[in-house]
Specification:
Elements lengths: L1 E7 L4 E7 L5 E5 L6 H9 L3 E6 L5 H4 L2 H8 L2 E5 L3 H4 L20 E3 L4 E4 L2 E7 L8 E5 L2 E5 L2 E2 L2 E2 L9 H11 L7 E4 L5 E2 H7 L4 H4 L3
Parallel strand pairs: 3-4, 4-5, 5-6, 10-13
Antiparallel strand pairs: 1-2, 2-3, 7-8, 8-9, 9-10, 11-12, 13-14
């Protein structure tokens, strides 16, 4: 599996492109905007983008959806609990940036679903808290967690639908993964489960680690 990260937009969202080098089938996670870098990588590597997967429905994670979809003809997937956010500028926060962003999913996800693109296999984990339908995507020794956990921090819960108690519960479940599991967050540098278990001050209270 090949993986490329793109840091996009004024909020520096992490967008990810994963693909099977043999079949050239690819998945894009949280396409931000401008999306030119993502599309250039698709073209450069002769990829067939089969799915856009959204970890949640906030504006910075969905700004590039329509551009990428229009250019590739792919489908958009999101957890059912976050689907209403996509077509509501107040809930997806685009209204706060002077935009009226409307996005429409092609298929809805649930906990335990499996997303495949060639040999790329991602298991869907429902990890609410930052949003009601936030998900993390578990791959081989890595997890894409959206805005659930960051290096040394956690996601905000003061937006509509946020719930700190649920976020901490979701984060604790994530930290049960093997310590060498790479955490690929929605913003900032990647980290590992082991590092956050020991170093994340927001999670030490609930994990008992000091």
């Amino acid at each position: 599996m090949e993986l490329q990260r793109f840091i996009l937009g004024e909020l520096a969202v992490n967008s990810y492109l994963l693909w099977d080098e043999r079949t050239k089938e690819a998945v894009c996670i949280d396409p931000g905007a401008p999306a030119e870098e993502i599309l250039a990588a698709v073209k450069k590597n002769s990829l067939s983008l089969t799915k856009i997967v959204l970890t949640h429905g906030h504006v910075d994670h969905i700004l590039g959806v329509e551009e990428v979809k229009a250019s590739t003809g792919t489908v958009v997937l999101i957890h059912s609990a976050d689907a209403p956010m996509l077509s509501n500028p107040l809930l997806n926060l685009s209204q706060h940036f002077g935009k009226e962003l409307l996005v429409y999913p092609d298929s809805l996800l649930a906990d335990g679903d499996v997303i495949c693109a060639g040999g790329v296999i991602l298991k869907v984990r429902h990890t609410p808290g930052h949003t009601p339908g936030g998900i993390s995507l578990l791959g081989p020794a890595m997890i894409f967690c959206g805005d659930l956990v960051f290096a040394g921090s956690i996601g905000r819960t003061d937006f509509p639908g946020g719930d700190r108690e649920k976020l901490l519960k979701s984060a604790v479940e994530l930290l049960k993964l093997p310590g060498n599991t790479r955490i690929l967050p929605g913003h900032g540098p990647e980290t590992t489960v082991g590092r956050e278990r020991l170093k994340n001050p927001f999670l030490s209270v609930v994990t008992g680690k000091k």
